[in-house]
Design a protein that fits this description.
The protein is α/β, with parallel strands linked by helices and about 425 residues long. The chain folds into two domains: about 5-35 and about 50-250, 3-Layer(aba) Sandwich (Rossmann fold), CATH 3.40.50; about 255-390, Coagulation Factor XIII, Chain A, domain 1. Helices cover about 25% and strands about 30% of the residues. The protein contains nine helices and 18 strands. The chain has helices spanning about 25-35, 75-80, 115-125, 130-145, 160-170, 190-205, 215-220, 240-250, 395, and strands at about 5-15, 45-60, 65-70, 90-95, 100, 175-180, 210, 225-230, 235-240, 255-260, 265-275, 285, 290-300, 305-315, 320-325, 340-345, 355-365, 370-380. It has a six-stranded mixed sheet with strand order 5-6-7-3-8-9, sandwiched between helices. A five-stranded mixed sheet has the order 12-18-17-14-15, with no helix packed on it. A hairpin with a 7-residue loop joins strand 10 and strand 11. The radius of gyration is 25 Å and the shape is globular. It starts with a strand and ends in a 19-residue tail after the last helix.
Length: about 425
């Protein structure tokens, strides 16, 4: 039996520094160049960027494939090729089945149509007839939990409502292949859990799932196989936990200061620093030392409800905890345009010895993300000051709790 997906030498090139010819003469020169060489003629100031390079692998019927890699590695470009949104520069993608994709919030929705009308529109795009869609309509509405807004134009939906409806449609109209990008991170925690459960049900039903996520725990629990893409190339393919552990264990000697290039968005980070109490940058801390996270960022305009958050995860990718400025006590709210600096103290004697990653995010409470950097800072907590240094994390966990023990002398041990 042939594989449901076959990728043979997929490469994708983008042209940077060129929006198009600046004159009719340049346009004619580019056109003539394409005729002569079969490739895009080079314009002054243009340069090539290869988002994907010679990607080849196959996916079998009913397989659940996780795709991981850092931001900009080429994961989303690959999914857009599989979804027929863009064509590869070289190579071919053979897909034997109907595909439902959820790559961006509101993909395939018409903003002027209501949620109900968009359900039928998406179903038609997926090749379903009206009768088939009607049989699934109640399930889709119940899953999305936005029934009171179903007859409202989707242009008035929040990003979370978009995702609820879009995922409900994609997961319930029974395509042979379901492709999900990191878009699920927009939803709230309860809905994310609901989506992951549904994806597990889809996989058990024998359909093929391609899942891109930075949630490595979900990859391990849902996927039977995982591929790693780095700088546009396929660098690993195998059992999910092995691939993920290898990937997350790289570059563990990170720098405590990371500066970012200015972005074109409405809000972005400029720099993140991890430091000791005296503000000296450091990526190594004793168990009984606290750490300070310094975040510098810019808002290009006033953004009501802006929230700044960070999370800490271990080398397996498991998120240990998350803290946000808006939910602190007292809340720290930064909404006015301009450049800002915030600091957050990570308490001492909480994280047990080991290596950890810090992810930073600028977002609104509904998780409309403006800027996000996965594993921006890597740091290590050492054994000094921790008496249980000989125990493994599996034996003692990841956190130390300052539990106070007392005795009222009413209980005696009998031997």
């Amino acid at each position: 039996m042939k594989s449901i997906i076959e990728l043979n030498g997929i490469s994708k090139r983008f042209r940077l520094g060129m929006l198009g010819a600046r004159s009719l003469r340049e346009e004619v020169e580019n056109w003539c160049g394409r005729l002569r060489s079969g490739q895009q003629a080079t314009a002054p100031g243009a340069r090539d960027f290869w988002a994907l390079r010679d990607i080849s692998f196959a996916v079998e019927h009913g397989e659940v494939l996780g795709i991981i890699g850092s931001n900009g590695a080429g994961k989303s470009t690959l999914l857009k090729i599989l979804s027929r949104i863009t064509e590869p520069t070289h190579g071919e993608a053979l897909i034997r089945g109907r595909v439902a994709s959820l790559l961006e919030v509101g993909t395939g929705f018409h903003p002027e149509l209501s949620g109900r009308e968009n359900i039928f529109l998406n179903g038609a795009i997926l090749g379903m007839n009206r009768r088939e869609i009607r049989t699934k309509l109640d399930e889709i509405i119940d899953f999305a939990e936005i029934e009171q807004f179903l007859d409202t134009p989707v242009k008035r939906y929040s990003s979370g409502m978009y995702v609820r409806l879009a995922f409900a449609v994609a997961a319930h109209l029974e395509p042979e292949i379901l492709i999900i990008d990191e878009v699920l991170a927009v939803g709230d925690a309860a809905f994310q859990k609901k989506c992951l459960t549904r994806m597990g049900d889809v996989a058990k039903g024998g359909r093929t799932v391609l899942f891109v996520s930075h949630n490595t725990s979900a990859i391990v629990n849902l996927c039977s196989r995982c591929v790693l893409i780095e700088k546009g190339k396929l660098t690993a393919d195998g059992e999910p936990s092995e691939i993920i552990n290898s990937y997350l264990s790289r570059d563990l000697s990170g720098e405590p200061v990371l500066e970012f290039q200015e972005k074109g968005g409405e809000a972005f980070f400029n720099r993140v620093t991890l430091a000791r109490d005296d503000r000296t940058p450091s990526a190594n801390f004793d168990f009984d030392e606290s750490a300070i996270l310094l975040l510098d960022f810019t808002l290009r305009r006033n953004i009501p409800g802006m929230d700044v958050s960070f999370s800490i995860s271990d080398t397996t990718g498991e998120r240990l905890f998350r803290s946000t400025s808006v939910m602190s006590d007292p809340p720290v709210i930064v909404e006015n345009g301009g450049t800002h600096s915030l600091s957050a103290r990570i308490p001492r004697s909480v994280l047990l010895p080991g290596r950890y990653f810090i992810t930073i995010t600028l977002h609104r409470p509904n998780f409309e993300i403006f800027d996000r950097h996965e594993r921006a800072i890597t740091f290590e907590v050492t054994n000094k000051g921790f008496e249980y240094y000989s125990y493994s994390p599996r034996q003692v966990g990841r956190f130390h709790a300052d539990v106070r023990w007392t005795s009222n002398n009413t209980l005696q041990m009998r031997i």
